[in-house]
Structure formats: structure tokens, C-alpha cells
Design goal:
The protein is an alpha+beta fold. It has 8 helices and 7 strands, in the order ββββααααββαβααα. A hairpin with a 5-residue loop joins strand 3 and strand 4.
């Protein structure tokens, strides 16, 4: 119906699902602004005989007002939610990913660094979904990577210096340590990681390659200049 809205919802129990919100396009409607992007809440959803999900009730728990008041925070939050929407399969529960997203939103809502936390949560999202290459082991010889790593070609797979040869697209030094630390630490601690501008630039370049590889040209705007 024209008065209904189709929502993309990321839930803890069901993963990403497509939900019909009856009458939501009307003004006013019984859901009000509760189902706007970013809102976290408890939903009552049922599945029809035809297999469609329908929203019956929604109880708003967290609107994340501080994120909405900051352009940088809002841009980072919406970027991450869009990334999850584009990369998550339908109806595959990912409770650990859901909890991590909620921690991310809580952290930037309470004043955490939206830039560094954004990069850290991208790594964790790709790890949960199985897209993140090893950041500690050479993909060629399986040796341990510690001080520097190289990316060959357009794929974001890391190799050590002995296996790099010619034609490397990216060399990671300070950025390698930053990537490994963000991958290893809980997200709540990633906002406190110290980094250099060079290390951050290397991380941004690597993540751009990773995003292109995973999204296959679908594209999410990703640039350090417009964060």
C-alpha cells in the first residue's frame, strides 16, 4: 500500500531483515519518528503467511541525539550503518556484530573520536562477515608480519617484504601497527589509540582498497577529506 514504508532493519535475533511498516507514510502515523535512521529500540515483528515481515509495535530506547547534533558524528554513523546494510546477507543473525554496532553508536554519542572509531569498526565488521584478510600473516609464505607489509595489485591481501617483489600498490609501516591494534583491541578502547598522520593515511588507503574489493564497485563515499 502507498501508506506503508519498507524498512531495512538490523536486528540482534534475525540479522538484516526487510520490514513493512503499515501506515508509516501517513502524517501523522502511529510510529511517529521512532523508526527514523539511527534509532535503537525493541520491536514487535510478525511474519505473514506470504513470508513478509510486518512491524506491529516499536519501543524507542535510544535516539542518539548527540550524534544527530554533530555533522562528523552523524556522517560516521550513517556511513557505518550503510556499510552494514550493503554487506550483510538477509536473515543471518550476527549478534556479535549487532552488539559492536551498538557500542560504536554509544561511544560516538558520548564524545568518542568518530574518525578513529569509524575505521576500527569497519575492520570489525569485515572480520565478523568474513571479508577481512589476515593482518598478521603473509598470504604468500604464511610467515608472521610485524614491522611492515605490502599490498600487491588491487586486492587488499598483505604480503611480507620477502614476498612483495615488484609492483606493490601500498606499503604499510606505521599503518600496519595501527590496523593490528584496532583489530585486536575491544572497540571501546580503540578511540584511545595513539597514531600519527602517516599511520592514519596508510590506514585510510588500505581501507579504501578493502571497501572497493568487498563492494565490487557498488561504492560508498569514503574519503579522509570529507569525514
Amino acid at each position: 500500500m502507498r501508506s506503508d514504508k519498507i524498512l531495512s532493519v538490523f536486528s540482534r535475533e534475525l540479522g538484516k531483515i526487510v520490514v513493512v511498516a503499515p501506515g508509516c507514510a501517513k502524517v501523522p502515523n502511529r510510529f511517529g519518528g521512532a523508526i527514523e535512521p539511527l534509532n535503537y529500540g525493541i520491536s514487535n515483528i510478525y511474519r505473514s503467511v506470504g513470508g513478509n515481515f510486518y512491524l506491529r509495535e516499536y519501543e524507542l530506547k535510544k535516539p542518539f541525539w548527540e550524534i544527530r547534533r554533530s555533522l562528523n558524528r552523524l556522517e560516521s554513523a550513517l556511513f557505518i550503518l550503510s556499510l552494514v546494510d550493503k554487506t550483510s546477507p538477509l536473515e543471518l543473525p550476527e549478534p556479535e556484530l549487532f552488539d559492536t554496532l551498538l557500542v560504536f553508536l554509544d561511544l560516538i554519542d558520548s564524545g568518542g573520536d568518530p574518525i578513529l572509531l569509524r575505521y576500527a569498526v569497519i575492520l570489525k565488521i569485515f572480520h565478523f562477515l568474513g571479508f577481512l584478510p589476515s593482518l598478521d600473516t603473509c598470504s604468500s609464505c604464511s610467515g608472521k608480519i610485524s614491522k611492515e607489509a605490502f599490498v600487491k595489485g588491487d586486492t587488499p591481501i598483505l604480503v611480507c617484504g620477502n614476498c612483495a617483489g615488484e609492483g606493490t600498490a601500498l606499503k604499510l609501516t606505521e599503518g600496519l601497527n595501527l590496523l593490528q591494534e584496532m583489530r585486536r583491541k575491544p572497540l571501546a578502547l580503540c578511540g584511545r589509540i595513539k597514531y600519527t598522520s602517516r599511520g592514519l593515511e596508510e590506514v585510510i588507503t588500505y581501507l579504501e582498497m578493502l571497501l572497493r574489493g568487498v563492494l565490487g564497485g557498488v561504492g560508498l563515499e569514503f574519503s579522509g577529506s570529507n569525514i
